[in-house]
Amino acid sequence: MTTNKTIVSKGYAVHNAGEKLSPFAFNRRAVGASDVLIDIKYCGVCHSDIHAAKSEWHGSSFPMVPGHEIVGIVKEVGSLVKNLKVGDRVGVGTVVGSCGKCDSCMSGDQQFCNEATWTYNSTEKQIGGTTYGGYSNNIVVDERFALKLDPKIDMASTAPLLCAGITTYSPMKRWKVGPGQKVGVVGLGGLGHMAVKFAHSMGAKVVVFTTSDSKVKDALRLGADEVVLSNDKKSMEKQANSFDFIIDTVSAQHDIDSMLSMLKRDRVMVLVGLPNKPHQINAQTLIHGRRILSGSIVGGVEETQEMLDYSAKHGIKSDIELIPIQKINEAYERVLKSDVKYRFVINMESLNK
Ligand code: NAP
Ligand code: ZN
Ligand code: ZN
Q1: pLDDT in tens, 271-282
Q2: Of 81, 170, 183, 242, which has the most beta carbons under 10 Å away?
Q3: How much is the pTM?
Q4: How would residue 1 be classed by pLDDT, with cut points 50, 70 and 90?
Q5: Minimum-distance ligand to the CA of 52?
Q6: Ligand 1: which atom is nearest the Cα of residue 191?
Q7: How far apart are CA 180 and CA 176, in angstroms?
Q8: Which residues approach ligand 1 with their CB closer than 6 A?
Q9: Which domains does the chain have, with CATH numbers?
Q10: Within a 13 Å sphere around the CA of 328, how many CA atoms are in the beta-carbon half?
Q11: For ligand 1, atom 23: residue with the closest CA
């Protein structure tokens, strides 16, 4: 059943760049014919939320309700909704709209559509208005962007798959990570720990590069075969020319040139970390060894569904620290100190406190 009424929402918002988040009441669009209204149960805290809240990339618009690792339960469906019903468990990631006609949309890469609508801090390109994300009690999205969750999975530890999961799964599939390969994961945070789990499950030998010696034991538990402290020059030198694939998840500017030199000839390093300052590379490092440097951003809708199904089948979920929304500012500070094991997830029930 649908009504024409706008949806009343409550959440936490950032009101100016870099300020702390605080309670915020707002309205969402009415549930349209192809929309679903979702009661949000949990939302992951991605480092991108922090970059955006600090307006570190292109200009952010405020007030901003961050959050794009959303899981919840369908509460209402529009009259033309075909694939979802009230009571279904669903997830929403970083993209909630696209033109549906361009080359990117036709190939299932909606995240590259020029008309893509992002879950927050974006204009609703298809219908007008501003988007507000998942640090809130509900969300209205077109059913095409609400992904089905296996009814048996744990919802809280599945939330991070909607961004950290797909962002690491997608480039591994694209570059055909598999058995017999040596895969490097740079940075053991939210994205990094998912990368370790996926690479391990795909049969690769996994080496984690971390700046935190406190994470060595965890890295091995998560599925790494070896851990290298990236500030230890000697250990780094031993890894030269030995990798088939490297995924770099680091959120800050760092020495990617030395990481590139770890690749074997003709192999690929993919950047997914998005620092606000540019990296430096030496052309020599690419030229000798004909190495390839690439990038990747989340994944398409169908591929995200594939990743969710793959994760449910292989028992892959995120290692989380569950927090009430009232602890969000503290959580941001800890993420900035690389002190999260390995993803904060907000329990949205806490909004009622
Ligand atoms: P995170 O949990 O903070 O993890 C980042 C990790 O990078 C840290 O835990 C730390 O790992 C390492 N690190 C941080 N500062 C460093 C420094 N100065 N030098 C070397 N290593 C450092 O963040 P996340 O949520 O995983 O996100 C990581 C990055 O990916 C962010 O920039 C985010 O915006 C971006 N992102 C991109 C996409 C995409 O589609 N491309 C999607 C989501 C997020 P160690 O302690 O192990 O060194
Ligand atoms: Zn994210
Ligand atoms: Zn398009």
Answers
A1: 999 999 999 999
A2: 183
A3: 0.98
A4: very low
A5: 1
A6: 26
A7: 12
A8: 46-48, 51, 163-164, 167, 187-192, 210-212, 215, 249-252, 254, 272-275, 296-298, 335, 338, 340
A9: 7-163+299-352 (3.90.180.10), 165-295 (3.40.50.720)
A10: 30
A11: 47
